[in-house]
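Researcher: I'm preparing a figure for a lab meeting and need a structural model of a single chain. I don't have an experimental structure, so a prediction will have to do for now. The sequence is pasted below. Please return the structure as tokens so I can convert it later.
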Amino acid sequence: MSEMNNDQIIVVSEPKKRRRGLLWVAAGAAALLAGGSTFALWSANDTFAGGTITAGDLNLVQSEDTSFWDVSNDRADATQTVGASDGSQLGHQIADVNKWRIAPGDKLAASFEATATLDGDNLVARVGIDGLDTLATTITGMNYSYEVYYGDKLLVSETALPTTADAPLLYLSAPAAGQNAGAEDATNGILGSTATAVSGTAAQSAVFGMPAATADLNVVIYASFYADQDGDFRYQATDVTVEDRTDVTLADTLGELTVSLSQVRDTGAQFS
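Model: Understood. Here is the structure written out token by token.
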């Protein structure tokens, strides 16, 4: 009898174990389907046209070799136009400035001609002379000034040359064409059109608009061996010069000066 009872217990318990196993598998599958899978409901998409973002350009390239001119206004041999200037200060070219010797009352011009490139909707750049703060000056009676021309149009009438590092001579803004909703950054007109000449400290904040991506500039630096007294920068008897043998055989070196074009974001009609 005991053996028969044991057989019955075995027979009855085995189906129960199988059913419990099947129930657990079914429950596990239901949990997996409920928490581990996602079903796509409604969705939509569309394609929008793209575009190309292109960087602009800033460049300054020398267009003529640096030239030196004797523009002493009381000389009869001052008959030639300096560089690409307007001819308001005539002179004669100096073949070798290292052999030329300046005397009290003389005036020397150094002409730098270059092509500036500005291509960028919000692009404003400083035109400057690098190295002014380290200019090697030993001639006490020498005074420096400058002019800037666009073609043969005067942009900056003769003004004392700044001597601080990164001092601007003037500013240029890239053409407004292509800006669409953007506004012009020029504060002093467009080159060759509405631009008007400026002088003094006003020149160092004036922004001239470029009519195209490139513009030819002529920066002229003057060295006057006298102190101008009436603001015309031309020598006359009332101007002050050194006396006796002051400054004889001394030299000023302009060799480290370079015309530069540098982007700024703190100058222009639209910058704050």
